[in-house]
Design a protein that fits this description.
The chain is of the alpha/beta class. The chain is built from 11 helices and 13 strands. Helices cover 35% and strands 30% of the residues. The chain has a 6-stranded mixed sheet with strand order 5-6-7-3-8-9, sandwiched between helices. Strands 11-12-10-13 form a 4-stranded antiparallel sheet. It folds into 2 domains: 210 residues, Rossmann fold (3-Layer(aba) Sandwich), CATH 3.40.50; 55 residues, Alpha-Beta Plaits (2-Layer Sandwich).
């Protein structure tokens, strides 16, 4: 069965604050989706609705055609991992493993134990005694071993050091290839994680700014490098997101596709064209007045 998440005019209000404002989108198929947005953009609010923790104020959300809120069957299909979870701090690592096995039908105990050993997590240690890094490692273990059809990581790996984060990225991709499912990564570490994304959603102040396949999105800009005077000549009239200069060499980031005449000019001037980084594009799109 095809996996889908569909929102129609989804809104969520906390007293005077409108956390989500009329979101409509559809996520289809087994993919790794990136959910991006600045602090306060509504990412966590959206994910907690998907996980059935809270109910939207208005609009609809459907996971495989079903409303998730107070839906026991659907809750067993979704695993949301957050840095600050809802588990009792008196629970031990072993308790969490037992509970996880009870919650998710596809739970892989052998895989969970392998990750526990990799991260050197003591089974008898209570959550309240775990370091931030250990808690992140435990969350990653639960998310991966759950094998839930809809697996969501909400900044759950920020407590890890760099080597452990890169281990997680490699492990996530490897396990996804063996067990395809819908995976959503909400992150501020865009530069590190962007290579995993197949499709991206960007939220801004509770609204959906855009949704696009990653290849399509990155075609909306490019980097141009060459002699500074040639770059200045080439850039006239173009939307420049950023520029860097080192001696007589200059590099700029252009927003938008280049016309054939500009491509020809770049060739004549001896300029080098390259892809835009997702993080650079994200910063531009979410800054005030950033999107054309």
């Amino acid at each position: 069965m095809s996996q889908t998440i569909e929102a129609q005019h989804l809104s969520l209000r906390y007293k005077e604050k409108l956390a989500l404002n009329d979101l409509s989108f559809k996520l289809e198929g087994a993919k790794i989706f990136g959910l991006l947005g600045r602090n306060g953009s509504g990412k966590t609010s959206l994910l907690t609705i998907l996980a059935s923790y809270i109910e939207q104020t208005s609009g609809t959300i459907r996971i495989n055609g079903q409303e998730p809120f107070e839906n026991a069957e659907m809750m067993r299909q979704v695993c949301l991992v957050q840095e600050n979870g809802y588990l009792s701090q008196a629970m031990t690592v072993k308790d969490v493993m037992k509970l996880s096995g009870d919650c998710w039908p596809n739970w892989d105990e052998a895989y969970a134990q392998r990750l526990i050993e990799k991260f050197e997590l003591p089974g008898k240690l209570q959550l309240q005694k775990l370091s931030r890094g250990m808690k992140s490692a435990l969350g990653i273990t639960v998310g991966l071993a759950s094998r839930a059809p809809f697996t969501i990581f909400d900044e759950a790996y920020l407590g890890l050091d760099a080597p452990s984060r890169y281990f997680f990225y490699d492990e996530l991709l490897s396990d996804y290839m063996e067990h395809p499912r819908t995976i959503i990564l909400s992150t501020h570490l865009i530069e590190e994680v962007s290579k995993l994304f197949e499709e991206v959603l960007i939220l801004d102040q509770g609204k959906l700014l855009l949704q696009a396949e990653i290849e399509e999105l990155l075609q909306q800009g490019c980097t141009v490098t060459g002699r500074a005077d040639h770059i200045d000549e080439f850039a006239m009239g173009l939307p420049v997101l950023n520029e860097q200069k080192l001696g007589s060499t200059k590099s700029i980031i252009i927003y938008g596709k280049l016309s054939q005449s500009k491509l020809t000019q770049a060739s004549v001037l001896g300029l080098t064209l390259g892809p835009i980084a997702l993080q650079d594009l994200f910063v531009h799109l979410t800054q005030k007045g950033g999107r054309p």
